[in-house]
Write a structure and sequence with these properties.
This protein is mostly helical. It contains ten helices and no strands.
Length: about 180
């Protein structure tokens, strides 16, 4: 939701950084119009049971804050849940592409919760470190993916793991998809 609001240049309404200008009637009316539109978007994206409890909130900022209080988990709790989901996710007869997509969505959300500092001076040593770190992360994803595959993919899993250079997880998917029965 934040991405959609930022893309429409409306995120400031829900964060409270764009406030209503009470001194300028034209700006005030424009603010009210945008505020109502954002409330409408939010109400349209929540379930009916949630909507019933927030339908009378008339400030997008207050609405956003109320929803955050009710539904946001701390980063630690969210990271724990996502890691638990990741380790519990198994193929269980699903198509390779469905299984991979589920894993990928969890990996991406986890990555979004790990804020790394911005490096302004990239030396060869830092570059080497980042390359090594990236390779380790890719291998970790590959191992997680292969661990959750159904047993029928045991021979293909072994072949992938015996490669001199381990493949990217996407390459492993491409290798496994034609093997689906």
């Amino acid at each position: 939701m934040e991405i959609a609001l930022a893309g429409k240049r409306k995120l400031g309404f829900v964060t409270g950084t764009l406030r209503k200008d009470h001194d300028d009637e034209v700006k005030s009316e424009a603010w009210e119009t945008c505020n109502s539109m954002i409330i409408s978007w939010i109400l349209g994206s929540v379930s009916n049971s949630i909507k019933q409890s927030i339908v009378f909130v008339n400030s997008s900022s207050h609405l956003w804050t109320e929803l955050e209080r009710r539904f946001s988990l701390t980063n630690g709790s969210r990271k724990h849940k996502l890691n638990k989901d990741l380790y519990e996710t198994k193929q269980q007869g699903k198509k390779i592409s469905e299984y991979y997509t589920k894993m990928k969505s969890i990996w991406e959300e986890l990555e979004s919760l790990h804020a790394l500092p911005i490096i302004t001076n990239i030396t060869s040593e830092v570059s080497s470190f980042l390359t090594s770190l990236s390779k380790q992360m890719e291998e970790h994803k590959l191992f997680q993916f292969l661990n959750g595959l159904d047993d029928e993919y045991g021979p293909q899993r072994s072949q992938l793991l015996m490669m001199t250079a381990l493949p990217f997880v996407e390459t492993a998917c491409c290798y496994l998809e034609p093997e689906e029965s």
